[in-house]
């Protein structure tokens, strides 16, 4: 948007109130265009987990906003995030989702780049005379930092260090990574799907406990009684906490915040067979640690703007257009851990997640209907005041009950800060 | 070429397709071996389904839960239920050891739900166990043509 005023006469700042946001945040193509610059090109954006690029030459392609990038590990184990765009006439230099390569060779005229993006070779250079100094044309490199194995990149060279941006979210990341059960965490594949709706509808959903019993009724009907009771958390003792900078955590199952605590508790019914299988290879304390980790964490951590650490998987969102969003649900496995434990993880992920899961399609349907309903009315608002009545200040931010919209308010506060800066 | 076997196997698979298109799920569940697996992989070249992430990797319990969910009315993505019409063709016997037969065929499936028609194409590979004058399904692998892409949600059994 060139001016700060929308077609309804609101300023961008007016569109986000402390207890509501304007529907145009879901529907206005001009706002979406603006977000690509002011949000996605202007903050730390998650690009990969370190296990996705395990060796020298391993790469993963992806997007920051709509800009194609490559995340790659060089021969010195250094991670680079490069714009996926040849410096000659713009062709992408890397295709495919993940893989391994020695270099990036542009398919169009053959310019070749090393893993750190340096331009190494230009075919038939004579025609350039002395007009082309290769040192001037490396692949464009973003600033990259890593915390707890999570790799983030930014276009903004003068942004605060990643650790400061994450702030109190860091301790939740540390807790989340305990689901390796004593092994390093490894991304073990992902479900990728799209839904016809705005990216912020999904952003909100990761800290929306309110929808769970309703939207996921068919999933709850498909699990054992004990699991069903565990997932009956909407009126339970959990909470949502605003962690600053748009990040928030929703604790659904307080008992499963620390996966290394409470190891003497009885093993849940649904893991009895797995525990028995693991006992053949591991001592009892390790069996308990692995089994508890396999079940996943009892919380969702939303890191603004595009990644969540959600129970037992990473949720990645990618804005495609104002009315289309791509979601990746990456399953987390134990690197070098027991195959039986990892298989249990994979089957759990398939049960809920992905286009054929018992959970995701119902979420997707609900989000699609939010987008559709958003076309009704000309000047309507999205209410975000749930849990505001009981919200309390905390050391890290502010907190309210588990089904409060505190996390959404946190995200929109950050959105407003970036969009109106 | 064993035309009789080919006819026999393709008749069985056509019947299974017809059951799925017409929501005859109890009959569909009865076609399976108790230890049978229904698999929709992400990578069409995958062979180690147990140790990789799939879209679906259903044993008997998950198959019956999936069927129950489709008919429960509890899931907003499957009510109204999508309508599907699939055609299966290009049948080929890949292996036959006298007891089990491996058959590959093509499936073209059209889905319609709430104003939108979608098209999913897949290679199907069946491992069928001879059972009297019919078969039971030991394994069915649905390799969607675009499995490695970002899909839209699938609210039926492809
Ligand atoms: S566009 Fe890459 S070499 Fe010409
Ligand atoms: Fe959900």
Please tell me the overall pLDDT of chain B: 96
CATH architecture of chain B: Roll
The largest sheet of chain A has its strands arranged as 13-19-18-17-16-15-14-22-21
Poorly predicted runs of chain A are: none
Residue stretches of chain B low in confidence (pLDDT < 50, at least 5 long) are none
Oligomer type: heterodimer
Strand pairing plus helix content of chain B: what structural class? Answer: alpha+beta
Report the portion of residues of chain B in β strands: 35-45%
First CA to last CA of chain A: what distance? Answer: 14 Å
* Rg calculated over all Cα atoms of chain B: 15 Å
Q: Compute the average pLDDT of chain A.
A: 96
Give a structural overview.
The complex is a heterodimer of chains A (421) and B (158). Helices cover 26% and strands 26% of the residues of chain A. By secondary structure, chain A is α+β, with helices and mostly antiparallel strands. Chain A folds into two domains: 45-154, Rieske Iron-sulfur Protein; 168-419, Naphthalene 1,2-dioxygenase Alpha Subunit, Chain A, domain 1. Chain A starts with 15 loop residues before the first strand and ends with a helix. Chain B is α+β, with helices and mostly antiparallel strands and 158 residues long. Chain B has a single domain (3-144), classed as Roll (Nuclear Transport Factor 2, Chain: A), CATH 3.10.450. Chain B has helices at 3-21, 25-29, 60-72; strands at 32-41, 54-58, 83-96, 100-113, 116-131, 134-144. Chain B has a six-stranded mixed beta sheet. In chain B, a hairpin with a 2-residue loop joins strand 4 and strand 5 (116-131). The longest helix of chain B is centred in the N-terminal third of the chain and has 19 residues, at 3-21. Classes of the chains: A alpha+beta (421), B alpha+beta (158). The A-B interface holds A 97, 188-195, 215, 217-219, 221-222, 326, 331, 339, 342-343, 346-347, 349-351, 354-356, 358, 360-362, 364-366 and B 40, 42, 50-57, 62, 65-66, 68-69, 72, 74-78, 148-155. Bound molecules: FE2/S2 (inorganic) cluster and fe (ii) ion (FE2). Fe (ii) ion is lined by residues 205, 211, 215-216, 359, 363 of chain A.
